[in-house]
Amino acid sequence: MGAQALKAFYTSALITEGQNGDEMKQFSISVQNKPGSLAGITETMAKASVNIKAIASERRDHSGLVHVVTNDERTTRDAISKAGLECNEVEILVLHLIDRAGELSKVARKLADANINVDNIYILGSANGKTDVALAVDNMTKARSLLR
User: Fold this and answer.
1) Is the pTM of this model over 0.85?
2) Which helix (H) or strand (E) holds 51?
3) What ranges do the domains of the chain cover?
4) Within 13 Å, how many C-alpha atoms sit on residue 130's CB side?
5) Residue 121 burial by CB count (10 A; 0-12/13-18/19+): exposed, middle or buried?
6) Fold (CATH) for 25-90
7) For the segment 16-28, what is each residue's pLDDT rounded down to a tens digit?
8) CATH architecture of 3-21+92-147
9) Pair 90, 84: CB distance under 8 Å
10) Which of 19, 34, 80, 102 falls 20 to 30 Å from 9 in CA-CA distance?
11) Where are the alpha helices (DSSP H) in the chain?
């Protein structure tokens, strides 16, 4: 593949922050690795009338992290605080990728070549031939500039 073809291949991703220009946050909530932990988080969100847009988790021996993206950051923050949950907020990038093989690979290669580490990645949803992907990275400013 020639230099121009490679450049074209790696420039098809479109990035936006949030939805309708809003900034988006990922809430990483520390939990014990036991039955009911997920139920407690989802019930906390439901009681506060917060809609979960994306959720992912990871296990660490006797503890875990639940990563949540919601429709209302302020209410989410308040609900987590009132529930006494330990939480870390991270800004995320939302990419609207064409829903076909290789699109995420292009983004991953751009980030790798720029020495940007991806801390978390998950799919927010798919519709109308596009897949929305959330990324938390170690250099948000550089990633935002690179992927515009």
Assistant:
1) no
2) none
3) 3-21+92-147, 25-90
4) 12
5) middle
6) VC0802-like (3.30.2130)
7) 444 422 358 999 9
8) 2-Layer Sandwich (3.30)
9) no
10) 19
11) 3-9, 37-47, 73-82, 103-113, 140-147
Q: Report how far residue 41's alpha carbon sits from residue 39's, in angstroms, rounded to the nearest whole number.
A: 6
The CA dihedral of 136, 94, 143, 22, to the nearest 10 degrees, is: -100
Structure tokens at 111: 């980030």
pLDDT given at position 23: 54
Q: Which two tokens stand for residue 29?
A: 């909530």
87 within 8 A of 80, measured Cβ to Cβ: yes
* Tokens describing residue 36: 């009911």
Q: Are strands 25-32 and 63-70 parallel, antiparallel or unpaired?
A: antiparallel
**Which SS3 state, helix, strand or coil, does residue 7 take?**
helix
Distance, CA of 117 to CA of 59 (rounded, Å)? 20
Query: What are the residue ranges of helices labelled H in 17-136?
Result: 37-47, 73-82, 103-113
Interval 64-114: pLDDT, tens: 899 999 989 999 999 999 999 999 999 999 999 999 999 999 999 999 999
Q: Which residue has the tokens 């031939």?
A: 129
